[in-house]
Fold this sequence. Notes:
- The structure holds two protein chains of two kinds.
- Chain A has helices at 14-26, 38-47, 64-72, 91-99, 112-126; strands at 3-10, 29-35, 52-55, 82-86, 104-107.
- In chain A, strand 4, helix 4 (91-99) and strand 5 form a beta-alpha-beta unit.
- By secondary structure, chain A is of the alpha/beta class.
Amino acid sequence: MTTALRFLIVDDFSTMRRIVRNLLKESGFTEADEAEDGVAALNKLRNSKFDFVVTDINMPNMNGFQLLAEIKGDEKLKHLPVLMVTAEARKEDIVAAAQGGAAGYIVKPFTKATLEEKVTLIIKKAGL
Amino acid sequence: MDTDNTLPEPLPDGEVHQKIGALTRQLHDALKELGYADQLRGTMGELPDAQSRLSYIARLTGEAAEKVLTRVEHAKTQNDHLAAESRRMIASLVKDPVAAVAKGEIMNFLTDVEQVTKVSDEHLTEIMMAQDFHDLTGQVIARVVALAATIEQQLVQLVIQTAPPHAVTAPIEPLREHLAGPVVDPDKTPDVVTDQSQVDDLLASLGF
Lengths: 128, 208
Protein backbone atom coordinates (compact mmCIF):
# COMPACT_ATOMS: atom_id res chain seq x y z
CA MET A 1 0.00 0.00 0.00
CA THR A 2 1.30 3.47 -0.81
CA THR A 3 -0.17 6.75 0.35
CA ALA A 4 0.21 10.28 -0.94
CA LEU A 5 0.89 11.72 2.52
CA ARG A 6 3.99 13.89 2.53
CA PHE A 7 6.47 13.54 5.38
CA LEU A 8 9.17 15.89 6.59
CA ILE A 9 12.01 14.07 8.34
CA VAL A 10 14.10 16.30 10.61
CA ASP A 11 17.41 15.07 12.04
CA ASP A 12 20.93 16.47 12.12
CA PHE A 13 22.36 13.04 11.24
CA SER A 14 21.92 12.22 7.55
CA THR A 15 22.24 8.50 8.37
CA MET A 16 19.16 8.66 10.57
CA ARG A 17 17.21 10.70 8.00
CA ARG A 18 17.95 8.04 5.40
CA ILE A 19 16.98 5.22 7.76
CA VAL A 20 13.64 6.85 8.62
CA ARG A 21 12.99 7.72 4.98
CA ASN A 22 13.67 4.15 3.85
CA LEU A 23 11.53 2.69 6.62
CA LEU A 24 8.64 4.98 5.72
CA LYS A 25 9.04 3.96 2.09
CA GLU A 26 8.94 0.28 3.06
CA SER A 27 5.73 1.02 4.95
CA GLY A 28 4.18 2.59 1.85
CA PHE A 29 4.88 6.25 2.59
CA THR A 30 6.86 7.21 -0.44
CA GLU A 31 6.58 11.00 -0.30
CA ALA A 32 9.19 12.52 1.99
CA ASP A 33 11.62 15.39 2.27
CA GLU A 34 14.41 16.02 4.79
CA ALA A 35 15.73 18.87 6.94
CA GLU A 36 18.89 18.92 9.08
CA ASP A 37 17.55 21.06 11.94
CA GLY A 38 14.52 22.97 13.20
CA VAL A 39 15.33 26.13 11.27
CA ALA A 40 15.58 24.32 7.93
CA ALA A 41 12.44 22.34 8.81
CA LEU A 42 10.38 25.46 9.54
CA ASN A 43 11.56 27.00 6.31
CA LYS A 44 10.39 23.95 4.35
CA LEU A 45 7.12 23.68 6.28
CA ARG A 46 6.29 27.33 5.55
CA ASN A 47 7.11 27.06 1.86
CA SER A 48 5.72 23.69 0.93
CA LYS A 49 2.86 21.39 1.86
CA PHE A 50 3.48 18.55 4.32
CA ASP A 51 1.14 16.21 6.18
CA PHE A 52 3.38 14.74 8.85
CA VAL A 53 6.58 15.71 10.69
CA VAL A 54 9.04 13.17 12.13
CA THR A 55 11.68 14.97 14.17
CA ASP A 56 14.72 14.37 16.31
CA ILE A 57 15.12 16.50 19.47
CA ASN A 58 18.84 17.09 19.99
CA MET A 59 19.81 19.24 17.02
CA PRO A 60 21.86 22.41 16.52
CA ASN A 61 20.33 25.84 15.76
CA MET A 62 16.78 24.84 16.71
CA ASN A 63 16.06 21.64 18.62
CA GLY A 64 12.99 19.42 18.35
CA PHE A 65 11.20 21.01 21.30
CA GLN A 66 11.64 24.47 19.82
CA LEU A 67 10.47 23.21 16.44
CA LEU A 68 7.41 21.62 18.07
CA ALA A 69 6.59 24.91 19.81
CA GLU A 70 6.97 26.84 16.54
CA ILE A 71 4.70 24.41 14.69
CA LYS A 72 2.02 24.39 17.40
CA GLY A 73 2.19 28.19 17.65
CA ASP A 74 1.67 28.71 13.93
CA GLU A 75 -1.94 28.89 12.74
CA LYS A 76 -1.07 27.37 9.38
CA LEU A 77 1.03 24.53 10.76
CA LYS A 78 -0.46 23.61 14.11
CA HIS A 79 -2.68 20.87 12.59
CA LEU A 80 0.43 18.88 11.57
CA PRO A 81 1.08 15.74 13.60
CA VAL A 82 4.61 15.72 15.02
CA LEU A 83 6.30 12.44 15.94
CA MET A 84 9.44 12.78 18.03
CA VAL A 85 12.10 10.15 17.28
CA THR A 86 14.95 10.72 19.69
CA ALA A 87 17.66 9.35 21.96
CA GLU A 88 16.38 11.62 24.76
CA ALA A 89 15.01 9.08 27.24
CA ARG A 90 14.38 11.25 30.30
CA LYS A 91 10.80 11.05 31.53
CA GLU A 92 10.64 14.85 31.81
CA ASP A 93 11.43 15.13 28.08
CA ILE A 94 8.69 12.66 27.16
CA VAL A 95 6.18 14.54 29.35
CA ALA A 96 7.30 17.89 27.90
CA ALA A 97 6.85 16.58 24.35
CA ALA A 98 3.36 15.31 25.11
CA GLN A 99 2.37 18.55 26.80
CA GLY A 100 3.87 20.52 23.92
CA GLY A 101 1.53 18.81 21.49
CA ALA A 102 3.62 15.97 20.07
CA ALA A 103 1.52 13.22 18.54
CA GLY A 104 3.98 10.48 19.50
CA TYR A 105 7.38 9.75 20.99
CA ILE A 106 9.84 7.03 19.94
CA VAL A 107 13.15 6.41 21.69
CA LYS A 108 16.21 5.43 19.67
CA PRO A 109 17.26 2.79 18.91
CA PHE A 110 13.89 1.70 17.54
CA THR A 111 12.54 -0.97 15.22
CA LYS A 112 10.78 -0.77 11.88
CA ALA A 113 7.65 -2.19 13.52
CA THR A 114 7.59 0.57 16.17
CA LEU A 115 7.87 3.35 13.61
CA GLU A 116 5.22 1.81 11.38
CA GLU A 117 2.86 1.26 14.32
CA LYS A 118 3.18 4.82 15.64
CA VAL A 119 2.88 6.47 12.24
CA THR A 120 -0.19 4.39 11.34
CA LEU A 121 -1.81 5.13 14.69
CA ILE A 122 -1.17 8.87 14.42
CA ILE A 123 -2.50 8.99 10.86
CA LYS A 124 -5.64 7.21 12.01
CA LYS A 125 -6.14 9.53 15.00
CA ALA A 126 -5.55 12.62 12.87
CA GLY A 127 -7.98 11.37 10.22
CA LEU A 128 -5.41 11.76 7.44
CA MET B 1 75.34 32.38 20.80
CA ASP B 2 76.73 30.31 23.63
CA THR B 3 74.38 27.81 25.20
CA ASP B 4 74.92 25.88 28.32
CA ASN B 5 73.99 22.26 27.47
CA THR B 6 75.23 20.84 30.71
CA LEU B 7 72.62 19.37 33.06
CA PRO B 8 72.32 20.83 36.55
CA GLU B 9 73.79 18.84 39.37
CA PRO B 10 71.27 16.21 40.61
CA LEU B 11 69.57 17.08 43.87
CA PRO B 12 69.66 14.69 46.79
CA ASP B 13 66.51 12.42 46.93
CA GLY B 14 65.04 14.07 50.00
CA GLU B 15 65.39 17.54 48.51
CA VAL B 16 63.59 16.51 45.24
CA HIS B 17 60.69 15.15 47.24
CA GLN B 18 60.52 18.36 49.28
CA LYS B 19 60.59 20.55 46.16
CA ILE B 20 57.79 18.53 44.44
CA GLY B 21 55.77 18.78 47.62
CA ALA B 22 56.26 22.55 47.76
CA LEU B 23 55.26 22.95 44.09
CA THR B 24 52.14 20.84 44.62
CA ARG B 25 51.19 22.96 47.62
CA GLN B 26 51.76 26.15 45.60
CA LEU B 27 49.56 24.87 42.75
CA HIS B 28 46.85 23.78 45.18
CA ASP B 29 46.89 27.16 46.95
CA ALA B 30 46.87 29.03 43.63
CA LEU B 31 43.89 27.03 42.34
CA LYS B 32 42.04 27.54 45.61
CA GLU B 33 42.78 31.24 45.67
CA LEU B 34 41.64 31.68 42.06
CA GLY B 35 38.46 29.70 42.70
CA TYR B 36 39.36 26.89 40.30
CA ALA B 37 39.66 24.09 42.82
CA ASP B 38 35.94 23.33 42.94
CA GLN B 39 35.53 23.88 39.20
CA LEU B 40 38.34 21.47 38.35
CA ARG B 41 37.12 18.97 40.90
CA GLY B 42 33.69 19.11 39.22
CA THR B 43 35.21 18.52 35.80
CA MET B 44 37.33 15.65 37.07
CA GLY B 45 34.13 14.15 38.47
CA GLU B 46 32.82 13.97 34.91
CA LEU B 47 35.74 11.85 33.72
CA PRO B 48 34.24 8.52 34.87
CA ASP B 49 31.10 9.59 32.97
CA ALA B 50 33.26 10.17 29.88
CA GLN B 51 34.74 6.73 30.41
CA SER B 52 31.31 5.08 30.49
CA ARG B 53 30.32 7.08 27.42
CA LEU B 54 33.35 5.78 25.54
CA SER B 55 32.50 2.25 26.68
CA TYR B 56 28.98 2.80 25.37
CA ILE B 57 30.41 3.81 21.98
CA ALA B 58 32.61 0.70 21.90
CA ARG B 59 29.65 -1.50 22.82
CA LEU B 60 27.26 0.05 20.31
CA THR B 61 29.70 -0.04 17.40
CA GLY B 62 30.65 -3.61 18.31
CA GLU B 63 27.01 -4.71 18.40
CA ALA B 64 26.30 -2.99 15.10
CA ALA B 65 29.26 -4.69 13.43
CA GLU B 66 28.19 -8.10 14.80
CA LYS B 67 24.62 -7.58 13.68
CA VAL B 68 25.65 -6.56 10.16
CA LEU B 69 28.11 -9.46 9.79
CA THR B 70 25.55 -12.01 10.99
CA ARG B 71 22.90 -10.71 8.61
CA VAL B 72 25.36 -10.62 5.70
CA GLU B 73 26.43 -14.22 6.41
CA HIS B 74 22.80 -15.39 6.41
CA ALA B 75 21.99 -13.44 3.26
CA LYS B 76 25.06 -14.81 1.46
CA THR B 77 24.12 -18.38 2.36
CA GLN B 78 20.65 -17.85 0.94
CA ASN B 79 22.11 -16.17 -2.11
CA ASP B 80 24.41 -19.14 -2.72
CA HIS B 81 21.42 -21.47 -2.43
CA LEU B 82 19.47 -19.40 -4.94
CA ALA B 83 22.42 -19.32 -7.36
CA ALA B 84 22.79 -23.13 -7.14
CA GLU B 85 19.06 -23.62 -7.70
CA SER B 86 19.17 -21.27 -10.69
CA ARG B 87 21.98 -23.29 -12.27
CA ARG B 88 20.08 -26.51 -11.64
CA MET B 89 16.93 -25.01 -13.15
CA ILE B 90 18.75 -23.83 -16.27
CA ALA B 91 20.21 -27.30 -16.76
CA SER B 92 16.80 -28.85 -16.27
CA LEU B 93 15.16 -26.48 -18.76
CA VAL B 94 17.87 -27.09 -21.35
CA LYS B 95 17.54 -30.84 -20.94
CA ASP B 96 13.72 -31.07 -21.06
CA PRO B 97 11.65 -27.88 -20.77
CA VAL B 98 8.30 -29.64 -20.81
CA ALA B 99 9.29 -32.01 -18.00
CA ALA B 100 10.68 -29.14 -15.94
CA VAL B 101 7.28 -27.45 -16.04
CA ALA B 102 5.27 -30.63 -15.72
CA LYS B 103 7.15 -31.88 -12.67
CA GLY B 104 6.58 -28.55 -10.95
CA GLU B 105 10.28 -27.72 -10.82
CA ILE B 106 9.69 -24.25 -12.24
CA MET B 107 6.91 -23.50 -9.77
CA ASN B 108 9.01 -24.75 -6.84
CA PHE B 109 11.94 -22.64 -7.97
CA LEU B 110 9.83 -19.48 -8.28
CA THR B 111 8.32 -20.07 -4.83
CA ASP B 112 11.84 -20.46 -3.51
CA VAL B 113 12.90 -17.20 -5.17
CA GLU B 114 9.98 -15.35 -3.64
CA GLN B 115 10.77 -16.63 -0.14
CA VAL B 116 14.48 -15.92 -0.39
CA THR B 117 13.96 -12.38 -1.66
CA LYS B 118 11.52 -11.72 1.18
CA VAL B 119 14.04 -12.89 3.78
CA SER B 120 16.83 -10.99 1.99
CA ASP B 121 14.76 -7.84 2.27
CA GLU B 122 14.47 -8.41 6.04
CA HIS B 123 18.25 -8.81 6.25
CA LEU B 124 18.75 -5.59 4.31
CA THR B 125 16.33 -3.71 6.58
CA GLU B 126 18.19 -4.95 9.68
CA ILE B 127 21.53 -3.97 8.14
CA MET B 128 20.12 -0.51 7.50
CA MET B 129 18.75 -0.26 11.07
CA ALA B 130 22.16 -1.23 12.46
CA GLN B 131 23.53 2.02 11.02
CA ASP B 132 21.65 3.99 13.70
CA PHE B 133 24.81 3.63 15.81
CA HIS B 134 26.18 6.57 13.82
CA ASP B 135 23.57 8.92 15.23
CA LEU B 136 23.69 7.56 18.80
CA THR B 137 27.48 7.39 19.09
CA GLY B 138 27.82 10.74 17.33
CA GLN B 139 25.80 12.41 20.08
CA VAL B 140 27.85 10.72 22.79
CA ILE B 141 31.15 11.62 21.12
CA ALA B 142 29.98 15.24 20.96
CA ARG B 143 29.46 15.20 24.74
CA VAL B 144 32.91 13.75 25.42
CA VAL B 145 34.43 16.38 23.13
CA ALA B 146 32.48 19.04 25.06
CA LEU B 147 33.99 17.73 28.30
CA ALA B 148 37.48 17.95 26.82
CA ALA B 149 36.66 21.49 25.71
CA THR B 150 35.55 22.37 29.27
CA ILE B 151 38.83 21.11 30.71
CA GLU B 152 40.72 23.04 28.05
CA GLN B 153 38.70 26.18 28.76
CA GLN B 154 39.42 25.97 32.48
CA LEU B 155 43.11 25.44 31.87
CA VAL B 156 43.20 28.37 29.44
CA GLN B 157 41.47 30.57 32.04
CA LEU B 158 44.04 29.47 34.57
CA VAL B 159 46.87 30.36 32.19
CA ILE B 160 45.31 33.75 31.41
CA GLN B 161 44.83 34.64 35.07
CA THR B 162 48.34 33.62 36.01
CA ALA B 163 50.02 35.20 32.93
CA PRO B 164 52.30 38.23 33.33
CA PRO B 165 50.47 41.61 32.89
CA HIS B 166 51.87 42.27 29.39
CA ALA B 167 50.83 38.87 28.00
CA VAL B 168 48.06 38.80 25.35
CA THR B 169 44.79 37.24 26.52
CA ALA B 170 42.17 35.64 24.28
CA PRO B 171 38.42 35.86 24.88
CA ILE B 172 36.78 32.68 26.16
CA GLU B 173 33.84 31.32 24.17
CA PRO B 174 30.89 30.29 26.35
CA LEU B 175 30.02 26.58 26.14
CA ARG B 176 26.71 25.53 24.57
CA GLU B 177 24.16 23.83 26.75
CA HIS B 178 23.25 20.30 25.70
CA LEU B 179 20.33 17.98 26.10
CA ALA B 180 21.07 14.74 27.89
CA GLY B 181 21.52 12.64 24.73
CA PRO B 182 21.53 8.83 24.68
CA VAL B 183 21.41 7.09 28.05
CA VAL B 184 24.74 5.27 28.25
CA ASP B 185 24.16 3.66 31.65
CA PRO B 186 20.42 3.24 32.34
CA ASP B 187 20.95 1.42 35.65
CA LYS B 188 22.72 4.42 37.13
CA THR B 189 20.51 7.08 35.53
CA PRO B 190 17.33 7.98 37.39
CA ASP B 191 14.10 9.00 35.68
CA VAL B 192 14.85 7.65 32.23
CA VAL B 193 13.02 5.10 30.13
CA THR B 194 14.91 2.10 28.81
CA ASP B 195 12.59 0.93 26.04
CA GLN B 196 9.64 1.97 23.91
CA SER B 197 7.07 0.16 26.08
CA GLN B 198 8.02 2.41 29.01
CA VAL B 199 7.54 5.46 26.81
CA ASP B 200 4.10 4.20 25.79
CA ASP B 201 3.15 3.45 29.42
CA LEU B 202 4.25 6.90 30.55
CA LEU B 203 2.31 8.63 27.79
CA ALA B 204 -0.75 6.48 28.49
CA SER B 205 -0.57 7.41 32.19
CA LEU B 206 -0.69 11.05 31.13
CA GLY B 207 -3.75 10.44 29.00
CA PHE B 208 -1.99 10.60 25.63
